[in-house]
Design a protein that fits this description.
about 475 residues; 2-methylcitrate dehydratase PrpD; globular; disordered C terminus
């Protein structure tokens, strides 16, 4: 790549984009529907409620809709609340190259900026595609080292994706887009140490907020280092000082993934994984296997002596090993999630409440679940495999290995299945008529001349914070 300025290359790609392939638009629309649903349901969670109350008390211009509430807020603050709500249930989508959750920080930013400017539905989707491209490509560049160091890619890379998407939506030129990305580099953060607490969903909200702020400042002439991404550039790698090298612990960073943005677009090639269970994605393969075994062999949870789980090397990294005491902690406990699934025969929103986590029957079985990492590597924390072996008290055993979970880009959900998840989630805060109207609007979103048609429908959700 020579001494090409990566920050400039990325800014040029974003600023000069005119359109994206129809397949990318279709994928973005699926992600938008899924994320709207989980954000609406997540708006009832305490983390989102607290952030919404804080934003409401601060006041300000009514520029964008706050999901699940009957008030509007400045664009950056609306993005903050909606991003927090979108990640509050840990039910939002995932990206393998990003090693994180792409839509929770990205969609709230473009939705807020798009509502403020009155953009079209197609422009909203196009901005989303561009933001996802940035998240995934940067994820490839920083690789496993970034996550292994304890960073939460949803927050760090999500900030850059949100800034890129909003820069395109607000029609910033190359120079100001480059400044927005530079500002975003210094606003990005988020530690895995806070997993299992309210601060984890705040990561997504703050990334969305920071993306909107970075673009707002850059649009007014605020400056940043033009090489904020790569620092002083060598022939093929990033050197100390820039975002990429700093976020990789000083390791050499491969810049090759940043050589050709949009060729092909990541949203169409690597795709987006949709969650079927409202818990950490590192547990999903194990849940698929356990639920399949339970149904196939009609296993009574009382007959289980032990449950042995082997996952790919590194797959336990984002999970908590100590017994959970809250629903939030339960989302990151493989032992709890499997025990709950085997007792109930399913995993739903009601499985991850504080009350559900304290059930004696689940705790009894949870103590018999053993998890270990095998020698086989996986693209942690999202890729890899899981093998579940259920040993019954009569000595018989049943086992199953899952490499590709349901909802993965290689096993995608149908539109009807996505719509079913949306109805489940959105129905917690919206009347049935509004849920169905929203579904119809999203189905033809690329045809809408003004995104306000969608946000006005979303504003009809029930509320916890009122003016």
């Amino acid at each position: 790549m020579g001494a090409v300025n990566v920050s400039e290359r990325l800014a040029r790609f974003v600023a000069e984009a005119e359109s994206v392939p129809e397949e990318a638009i279709a994928r973005a629309k699926r992600a938008l529907l899924d994320t709207l649903g989980v954000a609406l349901a997540g708006s009832r969670e305490e983390s989102a409620r607290i952030v919404a109350e804080w934003v409401h008390e601060r006041g300000g211009r009514e520029e964008a809709t706050v999901l699940g509430q009957r008030f509007r807020a400045p664009a950056a603050e609306a993005a903050l609340v909606n991003g927090t709500a979108g990640h509050a249930l840990d039910y939002d989508d995932v990206s393998l190259p990003m090693r994180g959750h792409p839509s929770a920080p990205l969609l709230p930013a473009v939705l807020a900026a798009g509502e403020k400017t009155g953009c079209s539905g197609r422009d909203l989707l196009t901005a989303f595609v561009l933001g996802f491209e940035v998240e995934a490509r940067l994820g490839r560049a920083v690789g496993e080292a970034h996550y292994a160091l304890g960073w939460h890619a949803t927050s760090t890379l999500g900030t850059l994706g949100a800034a890129a998407a909003c820069a395109w939506l607000l029609d910033l030129d190359i120079g100001r887009t480059q400044m927005a990305l530079g500002i975003a580099c210094s606003l990005a953060g988020g530690l895995q140490q806070n997993f299992g607490t309210m601060t984890k969903p705040l990561h997504a909200g703050w990334a969305a907020h920071s993306g909107v702020v970075a673009v707002g400042l850059a649009g007014r002439g605020f400056t940043a280092d033009p090489r904020a991404l790569e620092g002083e550039s060598g022939q093929t790698s990033a050197r100390p000082g820039g975002f990429l090298r700093a976020m990789s612990g000083g390791a050499e960073v491969d810049l090759e993934p940043l050589a050709a943005f949009g060729d092909p677009f990541e949203i169409a090639s690597s795709g987006i994984g949709v969650k079927l269970y409202p818990c950490c994605y590192a547990v999903h393969r194990s849940l698929d296997a356990a639920l399949d075994l339970r149904a196939r062999h009609r296993i009574d949870p009382g007959s289980i002596a032990r449950v042995k789980v082997e996952v790919s090397r590194g797959a336990l990294l984002p999970l908590r090993q100590e017994p959970p005491t809250t629903g939030l902690e339960g989302k990151f406990s493989l032992q709890y999630c499997l025990a709950s699934a085997l007792v109930d025969g399913r995993v739903s929103l009601t499985s991850l409440t504080d009350e559900a986590v304290r059930r004696p029957a689940v705790w009894e079985l949870m103590a018999r679940v053993e998890a270990r990492e095998g020698a086989e590597p996986g693209a942690f924390p999202i890729g890899g495999h899981a093998e579940v072996r259920i040993v019954l008290k009569d000595g018989s055993e049943h086992s199953l290995r899952v490499d590709t979970p349901r909802g993965d880009p290689l096993r995608p959900l149908s539109w009807d299945e996505l719509a079913g998840k949306f109805r489940e989630c959105a129905g917690t805060v919206m009347p049935t008529e509004a849920v169905e109207r929203t579904l119809r609007l999203v189905e033809r979103l690329e045809e809408l001349p003004d995104v306000h048609r969608l946000t006005e429908t979303l504003r009809g959700a029930s509320t916890e914070v009122q003016r």
